[in-house]
Amino acid sequence: MTKVNCPTCQKEIEYSKDNPYRPFCSKRCQLIDLGDWASESHKIEGKSAKEEMLSEELEQIIKDSLLK
């Protein structure tokens, strides 16, 4: 069986379909991680959806003005 460390507490656990909390060791660690994402302690770097949309709109405006 594959062994992994719980992302929250680093306890070594078996990565198994029998563990309903995988890759976490427990419901507690799973909820701590969820809370970190909800409070934005964890986040994925990059543009927000709003920034991406504005960037695409700006690119289109520039392309349209260059074609005129």
UniProtKB/TrEMBL annotation:
UniProt entry keywords in alphabetical sequence: Metal-binding, Zinc
List of residues binding Zn(2+): C6, C9, C25, C29
Ranges in coiled-coil conformation: none
Function: Inhibits all the catalytic activities of DNA gyrase by preventing its interaction with DNA. Acts by binding directly to the C-terminal domain of GyrB, which probably disrupts DNA binding by the gyrase.
Record's signal peptide: none
Protein's UniProt name: DNA gyrase inhibitor YacG
Names of the cofactor(s): Zn(2+)
Keyword Metal-binding: yes
Cofactor stoichiometry and binding remark: Binds 1 zinc ion.
UniProt KW Metal-binding keyword: yes
Record text on subunit structure and interactions: Interacts with GyrB.
Classification via Gene3D superfamilies: Erythroid Transcription Factor GATA-1, subunit A
Taxonomy of the source species: Bacteria, Pseudomonadati, Pseudomonadota, Gammaproteobacteria, Oceanospirillales
GO biological process, alphabetically ordered: regulation of DNA-templated transcription
Stored SUPFAM superfamilies: Glucocorticoid receptor-like (DNA-binding domain)
InterPro entries, per the entry: DNA_gyrase_inhibitor_YacG (IPR005584), Znf_NHR/GATA (IPR013088)
GO molecular function, one term: DNA topoisomerase type II (double strand cut, ATP-hydrolyzing) inhibitor activity
Similarity remark: Belongs to the DNA gyrase inhibitor YacG family.
